[in-house]
Design goal:
Number of helices: 11
CATH architecture: Alpha-Beta Barrel
Strand content: 15-25%
Number of strands: 12
Helix content: 25-40%
Bound molecules: ligand PBG
CATH class: Alpha Beta
Number of domains: 1
Mean pLDDT: 96
CATH superfamily: Aldolase class I
Shape: globular
Structural class: alpha/beta
Distance between the termini: 47 Å
Order of helices and strands: HEEEHEHEEEHEHEHHEHEHHEH
Radius of gyration: 20 Å
CATH topology: TIM Barrel
Strand order of the largest sheet: 1-4-5-8-9-10-11-12
Length: 333
């Protein structure tokens, strides 16, 4: 009988050798923590479909950010929930210098000058129709080019308030180029653009829309977000975003779209970010709450998986939890 010469189990035999040959590692610096902010004071309200994740008022978000910073997270992505009185079909309030987003950017940068502050750019929190762009009500269509102007104003108001990066998530054609031009012309050529290049029309955004009260009032987002049946379209979008001046590309959601992460990490030399979205978080949390999955292990495995697929940056609601674990286990890394 022939014995195997290749003993694959040798490289798996102990923690030490497994750690030595590991191809993928995580670090708190890899993470961007999404933050949900609402108007008011002393508010910490749990999002029902995102157990353990909260919307904060500005006074309390500062403590939450301190906790993130203490465990090594150095980047955040801000979302705000605006009241219905701030919503219309033009999204005009999105660019208001006194808006909650702009106030939040200023307050967070004042408290944490070193923190990398990114902001979401799309009209949905400001749209009476819950859409990312301006709606032609008669046709029931989302109008591309009129939306670009609103997005440009919104993005400019964010960098004027002190944001380091903007993350356009609206999927309108030409928005990266329009924002890059506006930054160049207005003295903000040093600001970064994280393009949601491959943003799919996914059912995994449900809990997020609960968090911001931003579900579409009619129809869905399939005329602007990518069809989950397609791969090439994402590569196409990524090429365009890169040519238009993006500094980083994003794939969203994460775990169902790892083939796309791999495609983009091969087709572009820009860093690729993955957004592990609200529905992914909710699935893990709910299965863990039932005792059906081990929460800690599945959290770490899900993050490793996106990194292994080719992501350099991970936007995740687990940023704090995962970082706590990482600094406990690798305190000097
Ligand atoms: C807004 C936006 C959405 C998410 C990020 N930015 C929702 C949507 O497109 O409807 C989803 C994030 C998540 O589910 O965690 N354009």
């Amino acid at each position: 009988m022939a014995f195997p010469n290749q003993r694959k189990r040798i490289n798996r035999a102990s923690n030490q050798i497994r750690n030595l040959v590991a191809e993928t590692t995580l670090h708190p610096h890899d993470f961007v923590a999404p933050l949900f902010i609402e108007d008011g004071e002393n508010i910490k309200s749990e999002i029902p479909s995102m157990p353990g994740y909260f919307r904060y008022s500005l006074d309390l978000i500062i403590y939450e950010i301190q906790e993130l910073v203490d465990v090594g997270v150095q980047s955040v992505l801000i979302f705000v929930k605006e009241g219905d009185d701030k919503k219309d079909n033009t999204g005009a309030y999105a660019a208001h210098p006194g808006g909650l987003m702009q106030q939040s950017i200023r307050a967070i940068k004042a408290a944490f000058p070193e923190l990398l502050v990114m902001t979401d750019v799309a009209l949905d929190p400001y749209s009476s129709y819950g859409h990312d762009g301006i709606v032609d009500i008669e046709k029931g269509e989302i109008v591309n080019d009129a939306t670009l102007l609103a997005l440009v104003k919104m993005a400019l108001s964010h960098v004027e308030a002190g944001a380091d990066w903007v993350a356009p998530s609206d999927m309108m054609d030409g928005r990266i180029g329009a924002i890059r031009d506006a930054f160049n012309l207005n003295g903000y050529s040093h600001k970064g653009i994280l393009a949601y290049s491959a943003k799919y029309a996914s059912a995994l955004y449900g809990p997020f829309r609960d968090a911001l009260d931003s579900a579409p009032g009619f129809g869905d987002k399939k005329t602007y977000q990518i069809d989950p049946r397609n791969r090439k379209e994402s590569v196409d979008e990524a090429y365009l975003d890169e040519a238009e001046g993006a500094d980083m590309l994003m794939v969203k959601p994460g775990s169902f779209y790892l083939d796309i992460v791999r495609d983009l990490s091969h087709s572009s030399n820009l860093p690729v970010a993955v957004y592990q979205v609200s529905g992914e978080y909710a699935m893990i949390k709910s299965a863990a709450a039932q005792g059906w999955l081990n929460e800690h292990d599945i959290m770490m495995e899900s993050l490793i998986a996106v990194k292994r697929a080719g992501a350099t940056v991970i936007l995740t609601y687990f940023a704090k939890e995962a970082s706590k674990h990482l600094i406990k286990n690798y305190p000097n890394s």
